[in-house]
Amino acid sequence: MEFSEALTTFGTYLLIGMGISLVLALLLFLIVIRQLKRVQVPPNAGFAETLLYTPFLVVVFIDLLDFGLDILAAPFAWVILDRLGLKALRGVSTVEALVPFTQAIPTMTISWIGARLFK
Predict the structure, then answer these.
(1) What is the pLDDT of residue 30?
(2) pTM for the full predicted model
(3) Taking the C-alpha atoms of 37, 50, 30 and 17 in order, what is their torsion angle to the nearest 10 degrees?
(4) What mean pLDDT, rounded, does the chain reach?
(5) DSSP letter string, 23-82
(6) What's the pLDDT score for residue 75?
(7) How far is residue 44's CA from residue 95's CA, in Å, rounded to a whole number?
(8) How far apart are the C-alpha atoms of 26 and 40, rounded to whole Å?
(9) How many other C-beta atoms lie within 10 A of the C-beta of residue 59?
(10) In sequence order, what are the residues at sequence separation of 6 or more whose Cβ sits closer than 8 angstroms to the Cβ of residue 72?
(11) In the prediction, which pLDDT does 1 show?
(12) What is the mean pLDDT of residues 110-119?
């Protein structure tokens, strides 16, 4: 197999994965909206405290959106997190979306788990 064929195959699989991720993110968004109607995050909560109030599906949604849209996820994540009342998560999510080659790393999910383990 030539390098160009391998690169084409990799690109195809990557695009398929990104497409599936985007579809899953959109489906999760509907569930997330329902869950966040019941969550009350204090207005002055920091990043770690906000993660303690945030349902797991929200961070999975943000990570899937980041993988599905790559760098284009930054403005969407900013607006969505702002509207959902999770303002403390906006900056980290946006910066992570803008850093190249980090989209495959579920940063928000890892942060959520870390916040729960190390309160």
Answers:
(1) 87
(2) 0.85
(3) 180
(4) 89
(5) HHHHHHHHHHHHHHTS----TT--HHHHHHHS-HHHHHHHHHHHHHHGGGHHHHHHHHHH
(6) 92
(7) 21
(8) 23
(9) 24
(10) none
(11) 67
(12) 91
